[in-house]
Amino acid sequence: MTAPHADPGAALAELSRIRLDETDLEDVLGRVAELANQTVPGSAHVTVTIAQGGHNQSAACTSDLARKLDEWQYRQERGPCLDASASAASLSLPDLVAEERWPEWAALAREAGIGSSLSIGLPIQEAVTGALNLYGVTPGAFDREAIRIAESFAAYAAVALANAHLYDSTATLARQMREAMRSRAVIEQAKGILMGQRRCSADEAFALLSKLSQDSNRKVREVAEALVAKAANR
Questions:
Q1: Cα gap 226→205, rounded to integer Å
Q2: Dihedral class, residue 5 (left if φ above 0, else alpha if ψ from -120 to 50, else beta)
C-alpha cells in the first residue's frame, strides 16, 4: 500500500533538525527511510543501502519485503541499488515487466508485488556510499515530479547521513581511545606489582602478563585487572 504523502518541505526541515548528540546513526537512517516513504509520491517501501569496504547492507528499511529485494542484489553483486550507490546516480525502473538490465531481479520484485523502483545514489563520505531505494506497487509509480522530489530529499539525506556517520565515527574513536587508556593504566599497574613481587624488569613483567594471557585464553587487560584486584584485596 502506498504511503500517504507528507509535505516535502516539512520532511527536509525535519532532516535539518536532527540532533546528532541525541540520535545515533541507526536512528538517523531509520528516520530517513520513513520520511522518504511518507514524502515521495508513489512510494510504498523504502530502504537505505550503505556500502563500505566492499560490504553492502540495508541499514534501514520500512518493510521486510524491501529488505529482501536489496539482499538479493547484495548476494548476486548486481542490481539497481548497487549501481546507484557506486555511481551516485539516479536509476529509475518505471516498468519491471519491461526491465532488461536486471531481468532476474525484476522478476523477483514483480512476484513480490512491486511494479517499479527508483534508486538514488547517496555520496555520504569518500569511503562510504549508499543509495535511497524506493519501491512502488504499480508500473510508473514514480513520475517526473516524484523523481524530482526524491532527488531533492536524497540530497538533504546525504548531508544528514554524512554528518551522522562522521559524528558516530568520532564518538566511536573517542570511546576506543578512552578504553585504550584505561587498559594501558591497569596493565602498567599490573606490571608494577609483578616487578615488585619478582624483582624483574618492566619488559619481563609484561612478558609474564602475556604468557598468563595465552595460558588462560584471556586478554592481557583482563589478566592485569585480575592481578590488580587481587593485590588490592590483600
A1: 15
A2: beta
Contact 2/38 with Cβ under 8 angstroms?
A: no
* C-alpha–C-alpha distance, residues 161 and 31, integer Å: 11
Q: Are residues 17 and 130 in the same domain?
A: yes
For the ranges 22-36, 54-68, 85-99, 171-185, the lowest mean pLDDT is seen at: 171-185
Percent of the chain with pLDDT over 70: 78
- If one counts the domains in the chain, the total is 2
Rounded to the nearest integer, the mean pLDDT of the chain is 81
Helix axes 202-216, 220-233, angle to 10 degrees: 110
Looking at residues 164-181, what average pLDDT do you find? Answer: 54
From the number of C-beta atoms within 10 Å of its C-beta (0-12, 13-18, 19+), residue 115 rates as buried
Q: Quick one: 114 and 222 in the same domain?
A: no
Report the CATH number at residue 202.
Answer: 1.10.10.10
pTM passes above 0.85: no
Whole-angstrom Cα distance, residue 131 to residue 112?
21
Question: Tell me, what amino acid is at 157?
Answer: A
Q: Is the CB of residue 178 less than 8 Å from the CB of residue 213?
A: no
Mean pLDDT in residue range 130-135: 92
pLDDT recorded at residue 206: 82
Q: Order of strands across the sheet with 45-52?
A: 55-61, 45-52, 128-136, 116-125, 90-93
Instruction: Let me know how many helices (H) and strands (E) the chain has, helices first.
Output: 8, 5
What's residue 94's pLDDT? 96
